[in-house]
Specification:
Length: 929
C-alpha cells in the first residue's frame, strides 16, 4: 500500500496547487489499485477504480501493461469487476493505443474462444499503432488459415480504421482571442523556465500566457459554448521559437477537445491563427494534434497608385486592416469551401492552405501519427493478402517539371523519398515520405518525446535511422532537484530505446552536456542526409535539417521516416570581401538586413536557404545555418566545396571517435557505423564518383539574394527594439543595426558568449582580447559581468591544449566543476568572468537568467521577451545579439563601443573570416581551426 499512500499524499499536495491527481505511469502503483479493486471491502476501492479507468496512461507505460492484463482476465472470465464488463474492458483496450493493449487484443483475437476472438478482431480493426512483431503475428495467423486474422487484414487493406471515422465538420464556429500583437513566440505559450513540467500536462498548462488570459479564454467559452476559441497572433506570425509541442499541448488543453475520455489532459484539435500565418514547425505540430492553423492576412501593406508599399517615417510599410479579429469576434471556418467568413457569412479570406487533403486527413484521424501508421498498416495488409490497397488516402502530391533542374533540397528529398513510383523526379511543392538519417532529442522536450513513444507503443529505434542523440544541454547549467528528477529517467529511457545519450544511465562515462546542435552537426556525416531534431535550431552545415516538435521526433525515431512537402528554396550567394575588422557573425546579421532591403518581405520565411558558403568548415558555417531559424526559414543547406567537405568530415570523425573513446557507443555500434559512413563518403568525393552536393545550374528558386560583403563596415546588432511604438515590431530578428547607431553610450548590464551560435574560434577570440587588453593596460577589468559557456567539452579540451584556457581561468571569478555542479540558479552577477559548463546556459533561459530588467548583449539566438532576461515594472529586459568581440568589449566597457573603439580593440585579433567560394577559397580559413 506504500505506493498508493504516497500517491494520496501527492494528490493532496497537488490539490493545494489547484491540480487534479497526476496521471499514473507506474505499473506497480496500478497493481496496488487492482488489489484494492478486486477486494470489494477495501476503503479506497471506489477511488482506485476511478484511477484505474480514467487516470492510467496508455501505450507502453508499465501502468498500461498491468492495466491491459486485468482487462484480459476480465474478458476471459478469470477476474470479475462488477463495474467493468467484458464489453467495457474491450472499450478500454481500444483507447490504449498499442503495445500491451494490442498484444492482449491479438492474444484474444487469435485465441480459441470464437466469440471473444470475433469481438477482439472488431476492436483490432480500429487500431493503427501496430509494429513489426504485431503485424508478423497477424501475417502468420493468416497464413495458418485463421479466419479472424483474415477478416482483420481485409479491414486494414480497406483502411476501415480511417474510413469509418466521422467526417470533418463542414463548418467550425470560432470566437477569437488575441494572445498578443506581433510575432508570438512559443515561449508565451510554453515558457522555457517551465520546461521541467512539460510532461505533466495539467501543471504545465498553468504557465500558458498568464492566469488572466486563461480566465479570459474560459469566459469566452462560457459565453460561446457552441464555438471553439481561436488563438491569434495579431499583426504577426504564430508559433516562432522553440517549445512547439508543449506550446500546442497547452493551447489544446485550454481550447481543444479531449482525445479520449479515459486519458486525462491529452487534448487535440486546437485552432490557431496569425496575421502572417503559422511558423512552419509550429504548423507541423498543429498537424500532429489534428488542429487547424490559419493565415488570416487581416492586415496588409498600404500601397500607392503604382502598387508600391507606402512607408512611414521609420521606413516601415504602413499596414491597413482588411477585417477585424479583435477578441470576442465570431467567425465561421467554412471547411467545405475553404473560406473564413464573418458571422453573416461574408467571405474574409481564402484558407485553402489550411485544408489540403492531407491536413483534412489529420483532422479526421485526430492527428498525423494515426495517418502515418495507418498507411504503413494498410500497405502491409494488402501485401500479405496479395491485393492492391483500397485507394482511401489523399495521394501524395507529386510535382515534376520537365526540363527543370533540382535545387539542393530537391536533390536530397529525391534521394531519400519513399514510395515514389516509376523513378519520378520531384520538385518543390510535392508531398513526400522521406527516410530520416539522423534524429536529435533535447532534454527539455525529451520527456515529451518519451511520452509520445510510449503513447505510440514504440519500444526500439527504427533500424533505418543511422544515428540518434539525446542531449543534456538545456539542463546543463544547474543540477537542481527538477533536473535530478527528470534527466536520469529520460536518459535511461532513451538509452534503452537505442539512442546515444549525453548522460550514461549506468555511470560508465562522464556526462557530456554539449549543445545538441553541435553534436548533431558532428554525427551528420553525409551531405545528402535528412536530419530531424526536437529544437528549432536543428540546422546543420551538412545535409538538410528540420527543427521539429517532440512528437515528430518520436515518429522519426520509431519509424525512421517523416512526411512533409518539399520546400521552395532561396539562393544566397556573396560578393565582395570582408573587412579585416569584421567577424563572420556580422555577415550573418547583414544577410538578414540586405535580404529585407532587396526583397521588401522576408523571403526566407517558410523556405530553405541554400547558402553558397563552401569555403567555411562545418563549425564556422554552422553559425550561418543556425541563425536561419531566426530568419524564420524552414531549413538551410550549405553548398560546400569538395575539399572543405572532406576536411569537415575528418573533423566529425575525430569527434565521433572521442565519443566512442568515452564509452558512449551502444551495443549496435551506432557511432562506429557513422565513422564507416563518413569514410565511405570521403572516398566517393575523392574518387569523383559523387562530389559534394550542389544544385543543378537550371534549378528554380523562389528568390535569389546576393550579400555584398563590401557594404559591411562595422559590427551589426540584432535589436529586440523593446520600446517600438508598433508592438508588432518588437522582439523580431528583423531589426539589424550597426554598432554606431548606439553612439557608444548604450549601457550593457551583462555580456554572454555561448550557445550553439559560437564555435572554438569564438572562445579563442575571448582569450585573445583578454591577452591584448592585459598587455596594453596591465590587467583586465570588467564593468559588466561576462558569462562564457563553451558549446562543447571538446572545445575546452582543445583550448587547454593550445594554451587559451589559462588566460580565461586567470580572469574568471567562477569556473564550473563537474564534481560539484551548481544546484541552484544564479540570481546575482558580479563584474567578473564566469566560465560556465558547456551547454545552452542563458540562451535557454529555463535555469539561468540575467537579472530582471537587464540589457544583455549576447552571441546567442534568443531575443524573445522573457527568455534570456525578464522585465521589471520600471524597465523592459533586452537581449541584443552581436558577435563575440562586440560582446566581450561591451562587458569590459559596460556599454556598447563606438565603431572606432571596436576597430582598435580587434586589430591583430584573428576573427572568423570568410571569402566567397569563387574568390580565393583557400584564404577563407582562420588559423583557429
Amino acid at each position: 500500500m506504500s505506493l498508493y499512500t504516497d500517491y494520496l499524499t501527492e494528490i493532496e499536495t497537488r490539490k493545494g496547487e489547484g491540480l487534479h491527481p497526476k496521471p499514473i505511469d507506474d505499473g506497480a502503483l496500478v497493481a496496488e489499485l487492482i488489489a484494492q479493486i478486486e477486494d470489494t471491502g477495501r476503503e479506497h476501492r471506489k477511488d482506485s477504480l476511478q484511477f484505474f479507468i480514467y487516470n492510467t496512461l496508455p501505450g507502453t507505460t508499465s501502468a498500461a501493461g498491468v492495466k491491459a492484463q486485468l482487462l484480459k482476465r476480465i474478458i476471459l472470465g478469470d477476474a470479475t469487476v462488477a463495474e467493468i464488463t467484458p464489453a467495457f474492458a474491450f472499450e478500454l483496450l481500444s483507447h490504449m493505443k498499442g503495445g500491451p493493449s494490442v498484444e492482449v487484443l491479438l492474444d484474444l483475437a487469435l485465441g480459441g474462444d470464437a466469440a471473444i476472438a470475433a469481438q477482439a478482431g472488431d476492436v483490432l480493426k480500429t487500431q493503427v499503432f501496430l509494429y513489426d512483431a504485431d503485424m508478423a503475428r497477424l501475417g502468420d495467423a493468416y497464413n495458418a488459415g485463421n479466419s479472424v486474422a483474415t477478416d482483420v487484414l481485409e479491414s486494414y487493406a480497406k483502411a476501415e480504421f480511417f474510413t469509418k471515422l466521422p467526417a470533418v465538420d463542414d463548418e467550425v464556429k470560432v470566437v477569437t482571442y488575441i494572445a498578443a500583437e506581433g510575432d508570438i513566440s512559443t515561449d508565451l505559450l510554453s515558457p522555457g523556465n517551465q520546461a521541467h513540467s512539460r510532461s505533466d500536462r495539467e501543471l504545465h498548462g498553468k504557465c500558458m500566457i498568464s492566469p488572466e488570459a486563461q480566465a479570459e479564454i474560459q469566459a469566452l467559452q462560457a459565453q460561446h459554448p457552441d464555438k471553439r476559441v481561436m488563438l491569434i497572433a495579431e499583426k504577426g506570425t504564430m508559433g516562432v521559437g522553440s517549445s512547439r509541442m508543449s506550446g500546442v499541448n497547452n493551447v489544446a488543453l485550454w481550447t481543444g477537445k479531449q482525445a479520449s475520455p479515459y486519458v486525462p489532459f491529452v487534448n487535440i484539435a486546437p485552432v490557431v491563427a496569425g496575421t502572417n500565418g503559422i511558423s512552419p514547425i509550429f504548423a507541423t505540430t498543429v498537424d500532429v494534434t489534428g488542429g487547424i492553423g490559419l493565415n488570416l492576412k487581416n492586415w496588409v501593406k498600404k500601397t500607392d497608385e503604382d502598387g508600391k508599399p507606402i512607408l512611414n517615417n521609420d521606413g516601415n510599410p504602413i499596414l491597413e486592416q482588411k477585417y477585424s479579429v479583435e477578441t470576442g469576434t465570431v467567425l465561421t471556418i467554412d471547411a467545405k469551401n475553404k473560406k473564413l467568413c464573418d458571422e453573416s457569412g461574408k467571405e474574409l479570406v481564402d484558407i485553402a492552405a489550411a485544408f489540403t487533403p492531407q491536413k483534412v486527413e489529420f483532422m479526421k484521424a485526430g492527428g498525423s501519427y494515426a495517418i502515418v501508421f495507418g498507411k504503413k498498416l494498410q500497405t502491409f495488409a494488402a501485401q500479405t493478402l496479395g491485393i492492391e490497397p483500397t485507394p482511401v488516402f489523399a495521394p501524395n502530391k507529386e510535382l515534376s517539371v520537365e526540363g527543370q533542374g533540382l535545387t539542393a533540397v530537391e536533390k536530397i528529398f529525391n534521394r531519400n523519398a519513399v514510395g515514389v513510383l516509376g523513378g519520378k523526379t520531384l520538385h518543390a511543392g510535392s508531398d513526400v515520405r522521406v527516410r530520416v538519417n539522423i534524429v536529435g532529442s533535447q532534454d527539455t522536450t525529451g520527456l515529451m518525446t518519451a511520452q509520445e513513444l510510449e503513447a505510440m507503443a514504440a519500444t526500439v529505434i527504427s533500424p533505418i535511422v543511422d544515428g540518434a542523440y539525446q542531449s543534456g544541454c538545456h539542463t546543463a547549467s544547474v543540477w537542481d532537484k527538477k533536473a535530478q528528477a527528470n534527466i536520469p529517467k529520460l536518459m535511461k529511457f532513451m538509452n534503452n530505446f537505442g539512442v546515444i545519450t549525453a548522460r550514461d544511465p549506468k555511470g560508465v562515462y562522464h556526462s557530456m552536456t554539449d549543445v545538441i546542435h553541435k553534436v548533431l552537426n558532428d554525427i551528420t556525416v553525409d551531405d545528402w542526409a535528412i536530419i530531424v531534431g526536437g529544437d528549432s535550431h536543428t540546422r546543420m552545415s551538412k545535409g538538410v535539417a528540420f527543427g521539429a516538435d517532440s512528437g515528430t521526433v518520436a515518429l522519426a525515431l520509431a519509424t525512421g521516416e517523416a512526411t512533409m512537402p518539399i520546400p521552395q528554396s532561396v539562393k544566397v550567394t556573396f560578393k565582395g570581401a570582408m573587412q579585416p575588422h569584421m567577424d563572420f557573425r556580422d555577415v550573418v546579421h547583414a544577410t538578414q538586413a540586405q535580404m529585407l532591403k532587396q526583397c521588401g518581405d522576408n523571403v526566407f520565411q517558410g523556405r530553405v536557404i541554400e547558402v553558397h558558403i563552401g569555403t567555411l568548415l562545418a563549425d564556422q558555417a554552422f553559425t550561418f545555418t543556425d541563425w536561419t531559424a531566426e530568419m524564420k526559414a524552414k531549413a538551410s543547406i550549405c553548398i560546400s566545396q569538395d575539399d572543405t567537405l572532406i576536411d569537415s568530415l575528418e573533423i566529425a570523425k575525430s569527434r565521433i571517435q572521442i565519443m566512442i573513446d568515452k564509452g558512449m557507443d551502444n551495443a549496435a555500434g551506432t557511432l562506429a557505423g557513422l565513422i564507416a559512413k563518413a569514410n565511405a563518403r570521403i572516398a566517393e568525393i575523392r574518387s569523383g564518383e559523387k562530389p559534394a552536393l550542389a544544385p543543378d545550374a537550371n534549378a528554380k528558386y523562389f528568390a535569389e539574394v546576393v550579400v555584398d560583403l563590401d557594404l559591411i563596415d562595422e559590427p551589426m546588432i540584432a535589436d529586440p527594439d523593446v520600446n517600438n511604438a508598433d508592438v508588432s515590431k518588437r522582439y523580431t530578428h528583423d531589426t539589424i543595426r550597426p554598432v554606431s547607431y548606439y553612439g557608444g553610450t548604450k549601457k550593457v548590464d551583462l555580456g554572454f558568449v555561448g550557445s550553439c551560435m559560437v564555435h572554438k574560434g569564438d572562445i579563442k577570440i575571448v582569450a585573445q582580447m583578454l591577452k591584448r587588453i592585459e598587455k596594453a593596460q596591465g590587467k583586465v577589468e570588467f564593468k559588466a559581468p561576462l558569462v562564457v559557456a563553451a558549446p562543447t567539452y571538446n572545445i575546452i579540451d582543445e583550448l587547454k591544449a593550445e594554451g587559451d584556457w589559462e588566460i580565461l581561468q586567470k580572469y574568471s571569478g567562477f569556473e564550473f566543476d563537474d564534481l560539484l555542479p551548481k544546484n541552484a540558479a544564479r540570481t546575482e552577477y558580479e563584474n567578473i568572468l564566469y566560465l560556465e559548463r558547456p551547454g545552452c546556459n542563458l540562451c535557454m533561459g529555463n535555469q539561468e537568467k540575467a537579472a530582471k530588467g537587464d540589457t544583455v548583449l549576447a552571441t546567442s539566438t534568443r531575443l524573445f521577451q522573457g527568455r534570456v532576461v525578464e522585465d521589471t515594472a520600471e524597465k523592459k529586459g533586452e537581449s541584443l545579439l552581436a558577435s563575440t568581440p562586440v560582446v566581450v568589449l561591451s562587458a569590459i566597457l559596460g556599454r556598447t563601443p563606438s565603431a572606432d573603439e571596436y576597430k582598435a580593440a580587434v586589430e591583430g585579433i584573428e576573427l572568423t573570416k570568410f571569402a566567397p567560394p569563387l574568390e580565393n577559397p583557400g584564404m577563407a580559413r582562420s588559423v583557429h581551426f
